[in-house]
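Hey,

Quick one before I head out. I ran the complex with zinc ion overnight. Inputs first:
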Amino acid sequence: MVDIMGHLAFGLLFAIPAWFRWRKRVSASFVSLTAVFALVPDIDIWLATWFPWEVHHHGVTHTIVFVVAASLVVGVVTAAAFTNVLDDWFGRDRFDSRDVFGFVTVATALGGVSHVFADTLSAPDISTPIEPFWPFITEPFPVDVIYYDDPLWNVGFLAVMLVAHLIVASVVHPVDRSEPLRGQESG
Ligand SMILES: [Zn+2]
């Protein structure tokens, strides 16, 4: 594990390609979703305090199977309940429920996978090693090249990723003058 900043940073790393796929607002939404879901597998820290016999840190929530299943559920629920809201928010890019399902499922799955990846690189410093490929491979898969509270991999990497996103976003999406100009014409 790295800390929250490190997980945000790895989520941001995985989300960089989004800027090349959609317009700025849609890409930013994708990046935000991925970054938030890069924190989700650690809900087992809280779950373990409520269900100490059933849940342990670095258990089922730190597996690809859990990440994919949870992302599918979030994708289905969001597509069913919020397609119109998101379609309005995204503006010119039209999103039907199938698009929203794919968008949300991929964004959340990427976030979850980035978390498992980061923990694979940094467990088992202070916790048990994770088994990312459970139940297919039940052996722990520790790579352990990062110390969990290494400031370089937490605040340093987060700073680098924030700057990288700013640069990529501004290069791929130079200031879009079309919308304000059209607004002035019509107004
Ligand atoms: Zn974790």
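The pocket of zinc ion is lined by residues 1, 41-42, 62, 115, 119 (CB under 6 Å).

Talk tomorrow,
K.
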